[in-house]
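input
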Amino acid sequence: MTPVSAILIAGPTASGKSALAISLAARLGGVVVNADSMQVYRDLAILTARPEPRDMALASHLLFGDVDGAVNYSVGCYLEDAGSVLSRMREQDALPIFVGGTGLYFKALTQGLSDIPKVPEEVRAVVRARAQGLLPAALHAELAACDPLTAQRLRPSDPQRILRALEVFAATGQSLASFQKLKQTPLLDAEQCLAVFLAPERDVLHAAIDHRFDLMMSRGALAEVEALRRRQLDPALPVMRAHGVPHLLAHLDGRLPLAEAVRLGKSDTRQYAKRQFTFVRHQLPQFRWIAPENAEADVMTMLQA
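output
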């Protein structure tokens, strides 16, 4: 069997990534490592489709549900944690199997992260306090005034990345874009990894997304969001932007019927899946696209080639 330093399993939401990772880990004696920016949060086990305890018992799992929702967990934070995991895996001679839908995590793992200076916590707090209650479009306009280059690259509806750019400018007086060409050494050599992207047919994927959202609702997703609502966290935090959360919060606040909140949650998730395909196509060229129904056999064939 061809030796690899890691197996990387990417794919759109609801494509069967977790099941594949668990099966491969059990078969190869590997460890499943999370590469999904929402499954890191302990607050949303159901709505982020985090593997259930009975599935996680089949193989070792790391970086799942370890982060409190009040934390603005960044790609840089993820790389620090992933680096610690990889060090332990190498000491134990264990095979890490990274799985998730966050293309930026895989890009950072294999291509390195831009060398952006760390923003002091006091600066972050000032920027966040000033942004409290402002609409994303207003934040985008503020960014355009001080950092037009970065503003051009960001969607006006993406408050998390807009705030990040504002924080960097406030801390350094320089554009975020000026730092993005400076790359740190990646944690993984893509040439030594087996990297696959599960690519289901679109109609099959959309049906799976809708079915899974209904299943999550039946398992208590609304109660999970209600518990998150009681914490009164900053709406700009990543956990508050998880797919389904804004619309279910609107329902709990009396601004949307439940059926409409569910419909919008499904629609947002389908749109996100489309962006996942686009990101991998343009940003992760080393990933081999495979059909989910033959995924395990294909991966084993690749390992034996």
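quick obs: The domain at 6-113+183-304 is CATH 3.40.50.300 (Rossmann fold).
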